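Deliverable D2.4 — example input (structure tokens):
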């Protein structure tokens, strides 16, 4: 019966949608027509198609007319289950069937899409045309939903038009982008080709230069060998010519002797000699004898004068040997003088060492006689909370004095935990303002970590903006703001008792020193600024931003940041940072870990070493000031003398800094400080010990190097 009703309400089987002929294509001008024209054409087509598909102008309410029946689940068209259900629907008239209007619309859409796919000019925009037509049919037939469907269609059509406009606007940019991309690629290829050509030319030039260098090296080696050979030949020729000269002299002497003998023989054998005048011969003999006597005398003189003369060659050799020996003698004399001086210095050191040894020995005997036995600190491991493991952790690397502080902290912390109330200290003038209270005050019993965090928050608020009130007043106001007026006093006593006990904790000890006036706030602020500046310099040196520096870079940053520190102090900082003498400069250091803090505010050994060096430098600076004044601690120092001593030990100090130091030492406001050279300066005196103690409170440090003393 349901199938009969479906056929009754469906459209006639003879009236089907006629597909567009295959040779006909969709006119793209439809996409650009105005909306009134499109609506008119779609309305005409809808009336035509509606007259073909509908019977009586009514639409089938499928599948709503099958009320009370279960709608089938979605199945795949090609599955066996689907085929069975279709067969059952044909066999059983009570199963639901799809309306003819829906089937005809689907067939029409399928054929239209098939025609568009077969066409050569089909686009995505044209493929939407059949869907537009189908959607228009629904809008016109479903009168109830026509406004909603129309608004949906208009929204999508508006968005599509907007997107088309954007695409049209971007088309020139796309073309330009392609052109620019091609130009850039061509330029890159041209630059690569040019660079490749230049590289090839440079490589050829390099090879030619290497060949020239090799050739020059070979020529140099050959010339050196030739020079060596020529020197050797020159020495041989020199010796040969010396020998030839001596032999020539001997030969000349022999030739002269032979010539004289030949002349005598010729005279003796001459036939006319006996016919000469005897007087003449006697005179000749006399003259000859005189010549012989004179020659004999000259020969004796020559023998006497030049009997010990050696040949020039031997003389030159001996002279060279003498010169070498003289140089060795001078070198040995200089070495002997240095050794003699070192011996004298060592003897002086030996004598001073002997004196120190005797002094230390006597002191050792006195200490052994008067001192008590060294305590056995291992006994504390069973008493301290946490057992041997915690005591070993607390005692690691500490001397006896530090161990006493640790033990006192443990005892004090235990007593604090047992106390429920603190007795008020009253309202006396000697009592700090934040502790003036009568009666019992509750012990809040915070943990050590909580106290450290509270003190850090107080420092942050103090440094966030300029505070005109004193530090103790600020501290109490901070507690009132944090915990309220009712609990502020209790927290003040609790924190004061904690920071008074824990001397080994940096945050607590520094806060206690500033709170009680032992240090000024500038000491803490300047130290924090120094650490921040050092971290900034290391970060700037880390060009790769990896958090790593070589030891050479680490050393350079320390020297540039602290130019007044000695090599020993730089070495101590590097060792505190993790450098060892056995390690090389190429080792990497994680510099950011040097500035970390644990949960109790304890900094790394590197920052602790910075603080220790700062305190040592301050003590050394004040000691130099005392030595420059040349006075005892109980003597009085005048303002001009203190000013002059400061300028002497630190010539780089500016006038403002000197006035700050002097005003602190004499407890005078800077506005009331007399001008340099004023008569009032001479009348201002202060005990030297008091002045030094006041200077110890503030941030006093060397600004520049001290001028070297003139050599005596």
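Example output (designed residues):
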């Amino acid at each position: 019966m349901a199938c009969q009703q479906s056929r009754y309400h469906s459209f006639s089987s003879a009236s089907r949608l006629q597909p567009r002929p295959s040779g006909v294509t969709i006119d793209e001008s439809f996409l650009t027509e105005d909306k009134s024209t499109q609506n008119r054409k779609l309305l005409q087509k809808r009336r035509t198609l509606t007259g073909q598909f509908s019977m009586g102008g009514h639409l089938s309410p499928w599948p709503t007319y099958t009320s009370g029946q279960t709608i089938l689940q979605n199945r795949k068209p090609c599955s066996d289950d689907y085929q069975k259900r279709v067969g059952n629907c044909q066999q059983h008239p009570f199963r639901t069937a799809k309306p003819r209007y829906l089937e005809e619309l689907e067939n029409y859409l399928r054929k239209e899409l098939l025609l568009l796919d077969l066409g050569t000019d089909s686009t995505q925009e044209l493929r939407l045309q059949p869907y537009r037509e189908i959607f228009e049919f629904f809008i016109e037939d479903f009168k109830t939903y026509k406004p909603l469907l129309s608004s949906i269609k208009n929204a999508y059509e508006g968005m599509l038009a907007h997107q088309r406009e954007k695409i049209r606007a971007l088309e020139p940019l796309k073309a330009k982008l392609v052109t620019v991309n091609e130009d850039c690629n061509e330029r890159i290829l041209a630059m690569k080709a040019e660079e490749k050509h230049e590289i090839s030319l440079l490589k050829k030039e390099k090879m030619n230069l290497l060949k020239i260098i090799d050739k020059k090296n070979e020529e140099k080696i050959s010339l050196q060998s030739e020079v060596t050979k020529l020197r050797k030949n020159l020495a041989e020729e020199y010796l040969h010519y010396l020998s030839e000269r001596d032999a020539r002299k001997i030969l000349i002497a022999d030739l002269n002797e032979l010539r004289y003998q030949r002349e005598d023989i010729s005279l003796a054998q001459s036939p006319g000699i006996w016919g000469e005048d005897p007087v003449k011969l006697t005179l000749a003999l006399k003259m000859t004898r005189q010549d012989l006597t004179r020659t004999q005398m000259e020969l004796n003189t020559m023998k006497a004068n030049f009997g010990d003369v050696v040949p020039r060659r031997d003389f030159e050799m001996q002279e060279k040997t003498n010169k070498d020996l003289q140089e060795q003698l001078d070198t040995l004399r200089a070495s002997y003088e240095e050794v003699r001086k070192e011996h004298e210095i060592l003897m002086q050191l030996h004598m001073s060492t002997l004196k120190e040894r005797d002094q230390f020995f006597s002191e050792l005997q006195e200490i052994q006689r008067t001192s008590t036995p060294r305590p056995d600190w291992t006994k504390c491991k069973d008493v301290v909370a946490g057992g041997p493991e915690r005591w070993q952790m607390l005692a690691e690397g500490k001397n006896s004095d530090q161990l006493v502080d640790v033990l006192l902290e443990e005892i004090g912390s235990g007593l604090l935990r047992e106390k429920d109330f603190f007795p008020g200290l009253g309202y006396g003038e000697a009592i700090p303002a934040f502790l003036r209270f009568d009666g019992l005050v509750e012990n809040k019993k915070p943990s050590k970590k909580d106290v450290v965090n509270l003190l850090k928050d107080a420092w942050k608020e103090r440094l966030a903006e300029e505070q005109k009130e004193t530090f103790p007043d600020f501290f109490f106001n901070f507690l009132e703001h944090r915990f309220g007026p009712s609990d502020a006093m209790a927290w003040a006593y609790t924190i004061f008792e904690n920071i008074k006990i824990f001397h080994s904790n940096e945050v607590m000890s520094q806060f206690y020193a500033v709170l009680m006036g032992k240090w000024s706030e500038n000491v803490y602020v300047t130290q924090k600024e120094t650490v921040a500046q050092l971290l900034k310099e290391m970060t700037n040196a880390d060009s790769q931003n990896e958090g790593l520096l070589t030891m050479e870079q680490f050393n350079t940053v320390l020297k540039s940041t602290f130019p007044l520190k000695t090599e020993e102090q730089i070495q101590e900082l590097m060792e505190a940072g993790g450098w060892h003498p056995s390690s090389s400069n190429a080792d990497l250091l994680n510099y950011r870990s040097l500035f970390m803090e644990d949960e109790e505010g304890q900094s790394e050994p590197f920052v602790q070493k910075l603080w220790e060096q700062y305190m040592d430098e301050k003590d050394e600076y004040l000691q130099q000031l005392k030595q420059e004044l040349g006075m005892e601690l109980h003597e009085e120092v005048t303002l001009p003398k203190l000013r002059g001593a400061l300028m002497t030990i630190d010539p780089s100090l500016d006038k403002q800094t000197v006035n700050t130091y002097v005003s602190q030492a004499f407890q005078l406001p800077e506005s009331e400080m007399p001008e340099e050279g004023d008569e009032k300066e001479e009348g201002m005196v202060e005990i030297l010990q008091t002045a030094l103690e006041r200077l110890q409170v503030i941030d006093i440090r060397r600004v520049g190097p001290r001028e070297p003393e003139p050599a005596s």
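The longest helix spans residues 146-269.
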